[in-house]
Design goal:
It contains seven helices and 29 strands. The chain is of the alpha+beta class. The chain is elongated and about 105 Å long.
């Protein structure tokens, strides 16, 4: 009996040892978990491949799956052939001869700054802390399924694979898990943000280029029942590079027009809707019947035509180069070229003209009209340079040129306001001026009216323009006698 008891005790001890050993094995960290190394920032180094080239990067995120391939090209090659990369390159070196292409679209250019950023984030990863070691809480941290899965293969044949989870509260970081491990890490957002970019947004978004010496600008489409047409100014009477010919003749403000044109040149919206756009894509965006068509032509025969859709409820619109393959999306308020009105091109003054180019004025006030004629007399200035003296006459009688100049300058300086009356109904005409020019065979007619409320407004070539400053207008009227 005593012998059996001793055997029982021995067996129990053996079983206890086995159980303890089994528990030790089950709770012991894996070999990978034991290999925790600190980096220079005292963070947990997960991997460091910065000395290698990521030859292939496959990313699956909310935008689908795509593969990037690294290529090295020789700029001096006349054929411009792409060759598989054979040398180590990382973002720090930024070798201009190494580019990434997308496997599905090998002929389309990617944004190099983004792909370099992606390559860098695939080559190095460090964690601020380990959040969980159980391997049972993936769903809780956005890892079941993951927000993104990243696989990278390097030049030496090694590879990394990891999964990106949700973002931690209070912008503390993003959860990440190495493939095959239980550990869930917390990493800085800046170490994974490029890996969350959807594949369409990787393409180079530069849509247009500059045109020197613009000869014409035309705005048409559904938004323009009457197209706006602007040409290079060929008249000397207008101090402007551009002249609006339709819907009426206006001397455009050079700075405003250039600002709008430059906004259309080198266009690079923030979002891509489609690459290699199909007819279905074009129709889905409303570009088959464009809301706006902007056509810019250069003196050298170059041409740029942008077509744009109507804005949606979020004030976003689609845009593409006519005949191009990429459709982009943009916020309408951020783009000067999108749906401008004629007022966007006009100067702050209602009717600025070159006073020296005025040959004569026909002034009509209180139903009476008279002419002010200018005569140019050759002369020499104090430095003996040839110049001319301008004499002004009315009915053959000489008029004080200083008063005449003050009057014409005052007309040109009347400021444009945002408001204007709807019609001439009930308004009374205060002044009408017809301009005749020295070198241009055209005339302009500028008039001032007073509406029923007593406010003064301007009319140019039959078009109601805007209200003007009454004090300035009254001063002009008083100077006429």
């Amino acid at each position: 009996m005593r012998k059996n008891f001793r055997l029982f005790i021995a067996a129990a001890v053996a079983v206890g040892v086995l159980i303890a050993a089994l528990i030790t094995v089950l709770v012991m960290p894996s070999e990978k978990e034991n290999k925790i190394t600190a980096d220079d920032n005292n963070e947990i180094l997960l991997f460091d491949k910065t000395a290698l080239t990521a030859e292939s990067i496959t990313i699956t995120n909310q935008g689908g799956e795509y593969e990037l391939l690294a290529y090295e090209y020789t700029p001096e090659s006349s054929a411009g052939t792409l060759y598989p990369t054979i040398s180590a390159v990382n973002e720090a070196s930024d070798d201009p001869n190494v580019i990434f292409t997308m496997q599905e679209y090998p002929d389309l250019m990617l944004d190099k700054s983004i792909t370099n950023h992606i390559a860098a984030q695939c080559s190095y990863m460090a964690a601020k802390e380990v959040i969980d070691k159980t391997g049972q809480r993936d769903k809780e941290f956005g890892l079941e399924p993951p927000v993104a899965t990243v696989k990278a293969r390097f030049r030496d044949g090694s590879s990394v694979c990891f999964h990106i989870g949700g973002e931690a509260p209070d912008n503390k970081g993003t959860y990440l898990k190495m493939d095959g491990e239980n550990n869930i890490y917390l990493v800085q957002n800046t170490l994974v943000d490029a890996l969350l970019i959807e594949r369409l947004q990787l393409f180079d978004k530069t849509m247009t280029g500059s045109i020197e010496n613009v000869s014409s600008v035309t705005l048409s489409g559904k938004a323009y029942p009457e197209p706006i047409r602007i040409t290079a100014n060929g008249y000397t009477c207008y101090q402007s590079l551009y002249l609006m010919e339709s819907p009426a003749r206006y001397a455009c403000d050079t700075n405003k027009t250039n600002k709008l044109l430059n906004n259309a040149f080198n266009l690079k919206p923030s979002l891509i809707y489609a690459v290699n756009a199909t007819d279905q894509d074009i129709k889905a965006c409303g570009l088959n019947d464009p809301y706006e068509i902007l056509t810019i032509k250069g003196e050298d025969g170059s041409e740029l035509t942008l077509i744009a859709s109507a804005p949606d409820q979020q004030d976003m619109f689609c845009v593409m180069v006519k005949g191009g393959s990429m459709i982009c999306q943009a916020k309408s308020a951020e783009y000067e070229f999108y749906h401008p009105q004629k007022e966007n091109f006009l100067p702050d003054n209602v009717f600025p003209c070159a006073i020296s180019e005025v040959k004569s004025l026909t002034v009509t006030k209180d139903g009476k009209a008279y002419d002010l004629l200018t005569e140019r007399e050759p002369s020499l200035n104090d430095d003996y340079y040839e110049t001319e003296i301008i004499n002004v006459k009315k009915d053959g009688q000489k008029v004080d040129y200083n008063l005449y100049s003050l009057f014409v300058t005052g007309l040109s300086d009347l400021q444009r306001t945002a408001e204007k009356p709807d019609s001439l109904k009930g308004a009374s005409e205060l002044l009408r001026i017809t301009y005749h020019y020295e070198h241009d065979s055209i005339t302009d007619e500028f008039a001032l009216y007073r509406d029923t409320s007593g406010k003064v407004f301007a009319v140019l070539n039959g078009n109601i323009e805007c209200f003007v400053d009454e004090t300035a207008a009254e001063s002009l009227l008083s100077n006429i006698p």
